[in-house]
Write a structure and sequence with these properties.
The complex is a heterotrimer.
Chain A: E1 5-11, E2 14-20, H1 26-33, E3 52-55, E4 58-61, E5 74-76, H2 90-97, H3 107-120, H4 126-133, H5 144-157, E6 174-176
Parallel strand pairs in A: 1-5
Antiparallel strand pairs in A: 1-2, 3-4, 3-5
Chain B: H1 25-29, E1 45-51, E2 57-63, H2 65-69, E3 73-78, H3 79-82, E4 110-111, E5 117-123, H4 126-133, E6 137-142, H5 153-158, E7 171-175, H6 185-193, E8 196-204, E9 216-222, E10 227-232, H7 237-248, E11 255-258, H8 274-286, E12 289-293, H9 296-302, E13 309-317, E14 323-335, H10 346-352, E15 361-370, H11 385-401, H12 405-412, E16 421-422, E17 428-429, H13 434-445, H14 447-459, E18 463-476, E19 485-490, E20 496-500, H15 509-521, E21 528-531, H16 549-576, E22 583-586, E23 589-592, E24 599-601, H17 602-610, E25 625-629, E26 635-648, E27 655-665, H18 672-692, E28 722-728, H19 743-759, H20 774-782
Parallel strand pairs in B: 1-12, 10-11, 14-15, 20-21, 27-28
Antiparallel strand pairs in B: 1-5, 2-4, 2-6, 3-5, 7-15, 8-13, 9-10, 9-12, 13-14, 16-17, 18-26, 19-20, 19-25, 22-23, 23-24, 26-27
Chain C: E1 7-9, H1 14-24, E2 28-31, H2 37-42, E3 50-53, E4 63-66, E5 69-73, H3 78-83, H4 85-90, H5 92-98, H6 104-109, H7 112-118, H8 124-132, E6 135-140, E7 143-148, E8 153-155, E9 158-159, E10 166-173, E11 179-186, E12 196-205, E13 208-217, E14 224-225, H9 227-233, H10 243-251, H11 264-287
Helix pairs in contact in C: 9-10, 10-11
Classes of the chains: A alpha+beta, B alpha+beta, C alpha+beta.
Region (Disordered) (chain A): 158-181
GO molecular function (chain A): 2 iron, 2 sulfur cluster binding; metal ion binding; oxidoreductase activity
Organism (chain A): Trujillonella endophytica
Chain lengths: 181, 787, 288
């Protein structure tokens, strides 16, 4: 039984089949066998959160689940969140609006996690937002743009005014000086 | 949105100076980025490296027969297989004759750090490759490792046995360089006679780049095409190409290197290290495709380390706190195999230690030493020790003199009327604004009010502190790095392709450089596409590193755009039968000023420039293409002031950052949103370094922090909002841009440490160590002597 | 960082799981939520001939009331425990401790039984079962047996379960009225294993403490009970109680480990203060 197993997973609404070794993680099955490379691996030991997917609706680390365990399950990856090809989900749009990503490698895990987090807690406080994001690591942004993106989605989903312009990191004091002599 | 005013000289236009949303994002937020691991060739053989389990020893047994016999394994290569292929090994920026330790792709006789590659497996999958590793029989006769912890390591590194017997010394390099004065007698006089001299040694622990995407490379040698094709996760494709061609004795036209999306680097992917070169050599010798994706364990243990150093600084002042002189002595641990040369950063630190201050007499010496640890690699602000040490010593000195640390800085900072200011190290500072940023930062954080709040909090038993730090960010652009080229090409349809030798790995280059070109050409930003990271299509360049992209590529893009604009107007002038001087470009249409209706679109101009060349004057070259290779000064500067407020839990020593303010002057901002993203990201790396991250070796050179459970990156819950103010003083280079990508990481450590030191002032002194773990802090509060 | 090969077994009943496990003996490992086991496999720090996956054993996922206790099936996800109304009402400290485990993505997959059977001495659940005197139900080839929490742990990540036994359920006794509980921990970052932590429970009657439990985690090879400190508390008046002294008593004689995050000396000092803070909170709850 360490031989490859046939499995079928409903990924982003589509039934997909593969024959995989039991030891192959769900992340690797998604990336290699199903060619959905949006789910990234950045630690492979369950700390960084880059590989987060929805497994039967719950956000989990796909590096800590074996592909065979997902046989018969429904999986949603970052590729399955936008309402239509060429469009963005509100979380994805907020990431763009708020500069919630730089290199973008960790972003799929954040986006998937935030969809799940806000489904469970649609009106988080700032402290709850930061706590909710603490299971995903980002090395580029310092998290400011990501926190702002969550704030934007919360505001929009609550029926707040559409976001205008680009919300940036914080309030600003800007002094413009003439060029030095 | 940033309330930047379109004042003269601030560089704000239709696209420039605007927080334009990033063009990279649509693909990256939907999972359609293409990082190396997403584009592995189906025929690639997957690599896993056998690595040394010990820091130092002789290899007595290395038997790979059983591993070679495992089904699915193509090859198991050792140093005996690969190292004979090596023709020469050096980094372009260092030059061929620069000293360096002996290099090898795979250790064959002895090992010199825990994690050093010994053998490489090529297998059908990484799973199988790791299975094969378990079948390799390896015995090492362990020898005493030359390492020690970060408080006493230097003595161990100097005495006794050698990390590299071939090098003849554990001292990798020293400053002053031969031929430079080895002392400054005037400074010695100042130190002997000044009313106050304060000397401290600041210990900097090892923390490292840790991009979310680790290193990786795939290479394929195709003898039929006489081409070694490489895709690498790199900041600098041309360096990949050149290093590999030199290594294997190929010519530059036999190697094609390119990068796809790169998932962060922070310096780690500037140079090409032994594993990447081993993959190229394996592809060449095996005549096949080979791929290696570094895993996180490898990345932490062997992915290049940083920031392992001590800086001793003596500061002399007069009775009023005016600085009379500074002396620095820097000791760096560069590990066994630094990724470039001998890996030291003291040369730049020496230039930058005076910072934004008028320091009087100056002298700096340094020593870099090898150890049996992972080699040094550049990490965002590699020379930051100058700011980390200086800004702490200023606070310590101010406290001893009873002067407020803000006031102490103000008294000593270079004033506007002193510009241009030549530092003791010969740097010419033309457009810096240290006092303005100090004023803005202290006003934003409410420095004066905080002191009252702090006094009240102390009365309640709460522990609050504030820290300030200022710096000059020097961006090195030596040699070819100061001469980057941008080519703008408009084809028959009238849109612009922009070719650059940059290597974006999160810096938003596809957006910011398009802003620059669209602004100059007067066309829509959607009609501009950036092409980079490809040795065949990009002009020769040094990639994206050292905070240079805005100043070098941005400056070149501006001038190349101007040149193309002139050409566009010349062609349009022929069509419109007008003088180019009477024409203007608006929204992609060239029109005669003040003559409605006399206009021509970009597509028609392009058609005329190419297909209608017979209509052009005889002395006009057909086509719409312009290039500019910039000549920037070898160092460019921005400046900033950081301010932090912390509160400490007196039961646990945990530090909470309550506020964090940055006031910076990076000249004209191409995209304020991107500028603020760079600042914030850098600051949080500093937070990580000061409070969480520490790569730890035990006394035998065994790495102890080999996973993300032990090497702690800061999370969203550990950091505050970062408040940012801008002072805008354009530089004197094209576009008025200044370098700013590293400053957040350079100045945040001393600001944070100063805040903790200030908070702990009632309890006695904070030792000059990092990281400031809860234990270090609690020991001060409880009055327990440090271990 | 890829796991070595293993045979995958996915039984659907507890009986089947016990049978399968029995066939392999110590060559097999039970796979519950996998949040600790899979990283160990990926790092190849351990390898097993077979993994017996309990994720399809539906009968092990439940929370129910049984004879004055709350019984939680081993395969109940931590996220379920955290949100369960019965747990929150009857064993509130279990829900409170659950929120400190990792991050929500970990709790969505991690299970109560997996964490307790894994027995990480720095984890929250082993300290909760130790403090509350929970009882563990173990299934083996010869049927089920009950095991007191105090008899569960042998050493770091080692239990007294036999190789062919499966932890099937945990029974948490419900304390009476006027009881209060608290869990406090110091972790380097949110979601990290605790550097030091404590779970406490008290019952108060007529201004005096009638029952007290203090467990410590991250402080030794197994979760520890601070029996001496507890005996000082029982019978004591809540008014004027010197909690700092109780905290000091709780860590007296404890010899916690040192690692890259903190020395044992630090752990001792911090644990003592966490005990005091936790007791203050628990006493408030009990006397509210």
């Amino acid at each position: 039984m360490s031989d490859p197993h046939p499995i079928t997973i409903t990924v982003n609404g589509q039934a997909r089949s593969a024959i995989v070794e039991p030891r192959k993680t769900l992340a690797d099955v998604l990336r290699e066998d199903l060619r959905l490379t949006g789910t990234h691996l950045a630690c492979e030991h369950g700390v960084c959160g880059a590989c987060t997917v929805l497994l039967d609706g719950s956000a989990v680390r796909s590096c800590l689940v074996f592909g065979v365990q997902a046989d018969g399950a429904e999986v949603t990856t970052v590729e399955g969140l936008a309402p239509a090809p060429g469009e963005l989900s509100d979380v994805q749009a907020a990431f763009r609006d708020c500069h919630g990503l730089q290199c973008g490698f960790c972003t799929p895990g954040f986006v998937v996690s935030i969809h799940a987090f806000l489904d469970a807690n649609p009106a988080p406080t700032d402290e709850e937002i930061r706590s909710g994001l603490s299971g995903n690591l980002c090395r580029c942004t310092g998290y400011a743009g990501i926190v702002n993106a969550v704030r934007q989605v919360v505001r929009e989903r609550a029926g707040g005014p559409p976001t205008e312009g680009v919300p940036t990191v914080a309030g600003h004091a800007v002094t413009t000086l003439p060029s030095a002599p | 949105m940033t309330a930047t005013q379109a004042a003269p000289g601030s560089g704000v236009g239709r696209f420039l100076g605007q927080s334009v949303k990033r063009r990279e994002d649509a693909r990256l937020v939907t999972g359609h980025g293409r990082y190396l691991e997403d584009v592995l060739w189906p025929d690639a053989w997957h690599v896993a490296f056998l690595r040394s389990p010990v820091a130092r020893g002789r290899i007595s047994t290395l038997d790979v027969k059983a591993a070679r016999a495992l089904p699915g394994v193509r090859a198991v290569l050792t140093g005996a297989d690969l190292d004979p292929l090596v023709k020469s090994w050096w980094q372009t920026a260092m030059g061929k004759d620069s000293p360096q330790p002996p290099r090898r792709l795979l250790a064959a006789d002895d090992v010199r750090y825990a994690g050093e590659p010994i053998a490489m497996v090529l297998a059908e999958s990484r799973y199988l490759a790791e299975d094969a590793l378990e079948l390799i029989d390896l015995d090492i006769e362990t020898q005493p490792a030359i390492v020690s912890d970060h408080r006493g390591r230097w003595g161990a590194a100097k005495d006794g046995e050698l990390v590299h017997p071939e090098y003849g010394s554990n001292v990798a390099s020293t400053l002053p360089y031969p031929g430079m004065p080895d002392s400054n007698p005037a400074l010695e006089e100042v130190l002997a006679s000044a009313p106050h001299v304060v000397e401290e040694t600041f210990h900097q622990h090892r923390y490292i780049c840790v991009p979310m995407e680790t290193r990786g490379i795939q290479a394929r040698w195709d003898p039929a095409r006489d081409l070694l094709e490489i895709v690498s996760s790199t900041q600098n494709v041309h360096e990949v190409r050149s290093t590999v061609s030199r290594l294997l004795g190929l010519s530059d036209v036999q190697v094609h290197a390119r990068a796809e999306d790169v998932g962060g680097a922070f310096g780690l992917k500037c140079f090409v290290d032994s594993e990447e070169l081993a993959v190229a050599a394996a592809a060449y010798s095996q005549q096949c495709a080979v791929a290696w994706i570094e895993d996180r364990n490898e990345n932490l243990v062997a992915g290049g380390h940083s920031r392992t150093e001590d800086l001793t600084v003596s500061l002399a002042t007069d009775a009023d706190g005016k600085i009379l002189g500074i002396k620095g002595h820097h000791v760096e641990d560069v590990g066994a195999f630094p990724t470039y040369g001998v890996g030291g950063n003291a040369g730049l630190a020496m230039m930058m230690l005076p910072g934004p201050y008028d320091v009087g007499q100056y002298f700096y010496s340094a020593e870099a030493v090898f150890s049996n640890t992972c080699g040094m690699t550049p990490y965002r602000g590699p020379f930051l020790m100058e700011t980390v040490a200086r800004e702490q010593l200023i606070d310590i000195t101010a406290a001893r003199l009873g002067i407020d640390p803000v006031e102490f800085r103000r008294r000593n900072m270079i004033r506007p009327d002193q510009l241009p200011f030549t530092t003791p190290t010969g740097l010419v500072l033309e457009t810096i604004t240290p006092i303005e940023t100090l004023d803005q930062a202290t006003e934003m954080i409410g420095y004066a009010d905080f002191r009252k709040e702090q006094a009240a909090a102390r009365a309640e038993g709460r522990i609050l502190g504030i820290g300030i730090a200022s710096y000059i960010e020097g961006s090195p652009a030596f040699g070819a790095a100061g001469a980057e080229q941008v080519t703008v090409r408009m084809d028959m349809a009238g849109q612009a392709l922009v070719f650059m030798g940059s290597g974006s790995h999160g810096q938003s280059v596809e957006t910011t450089m398009a802003q620059v070109v669209a602004e100059e050409l007067g066309i829509d930003i959607d009609d501009v596409r950036i092409v980079q990271g490809d040795t065949i299509s990009s002009p020769y360049g040094t990639g994206t590193a050292g905070s240079r992209t805005a100043t070098t590529f941005g400056g070149a893009a501006r001038i190349a755009g101007q040149k193309l604009k002139e050409k566009i107007l010349q062609v349009a002038a022929v069509a419109l039968e007008a003088s180019p001087d009477d024409l203007e470009i608006t929204d992609g249409v060239v029109s005669v000023k003040g003559t409605p209706g006399a206009a021509i679109g970009m597509e028609q101009i392009a058609a005329m420039a190419y297909a209608g060349h017979t209509m052009l004057p005889a002395d006009m070259e057909p086509g719409l293409e312009a290039k500019h290779r910039i000549r920037n000064p070898p160092l460019m500067f921005s400046n900033a002031c950081h301010a932090a407020i912390v509160e400490i839990d007196r039961d646990t020593g945990a530090v909470e950052i309550k506020r964090y303010v940055v006031s910076e002057d990076c000249g004209n901002m191409i995209n304020p949103m991107v500028v603020e993203g760079q600042i914030t990201g850098g600051v949080v790396q500093g937070i990580g370094g000061v409070f969480y991250e520490h790569f730890v070796y035990d006394g035998d050179g065994n790495p102890l922090t080999t996973t993300f459970l032990d090497y702690l990156l800061p999370t969203a819950a550990d950091v505050p909002d970062i408040e940012i103010g801008h002072v805008i003083t354009p530089s004197n280079t094209p576009g008025g841009f200044k370098p700013m990508g590293e400053g957040g990481a350079i100045c945040s450590p001393p600001a944070l440490i100063n805040a903790v030191r200030d908070a702990l002032a009632p309890f006695g002194g904070l030792p000059n160590v990092q990281p400031l773990t809860p234990e270090v802090v609690l020991d001060v509060i409880d009055g327990v002597p440090a271990v | 960082m890829k796991p070595a090969p293993f045979t995958y077994e996915a039984p659907t009943t507890l009986g089947e799981a016990v049978d399968v496990l029995g066939r392999y003996g110590d060559e097999a490992k039970v796979l519950a939520g996998g949040q600790s086991l899979v990283p160990v496999l990926a790092l190849r720090l351990a390898r097993f001939e077979a993994l017996v996956d309990l994720n399809r054993v539906d009968e092990l996922a439940y929370v129910r009331e049984d004879d004055g206790a709350v019984v939680v099936g081993a395969m109940t996800r931590q996220a379920t425990v955290e949100a369960d109304p019965l747990v929150r009402r009857a064993v509130p400290v279990l829900a409170e401790a659950t929120r400190l485990i990792g991050h929500f993505q970990i709790r969505n997959r991690g299970t109560l039984g997996g964490s307790i059977a894994h027995g990480d001495p720095a984890a929250e659940y082993p300290a909760v079962v130790t403090a509350l005197d929970a009882t563990v139900t173990v299934a083996g080839p010869s049927g089920t047996r009950q095991l007191a929490a105090a008899d569960l742990y042998d050493g770091p990540m080692t239990t007294t379960l036999a190789d062919d036994e499966i932890l099937a359920a945990v029974s948490f006794p419900v304390w009476g009225p006027r009881s209060g509980f608290a869990v406090r921990e110091m972790a380097r970052r949110e979601g990290d294993f605790a550097t030091a932590g404590t779970v406490v429970g008290v019952t108060v009657a007529d201004g005096r403490i009638t029952r007290a439990a203090i467990s410590l985690f991250g402080m030794g090879p197994v979760p520890l009970r601070a029996r001496d400190a507890e005996s000082h508390l029982v019978g004591a008046a809540t008014a004027g109680l010197d909690l700092t002294a109780v905290g000091a008593a709780a860590v007296a004689g404890v010899d916690p480990p040192s690692d890259v995050h903190a020395s044992g000396r630090y752990r001792t000092r911090v644990a003592s203060r966490l005990v005091a803070r936790a007791l203050e909170s628990a006493l408030q709850e009990a006397t509210a």
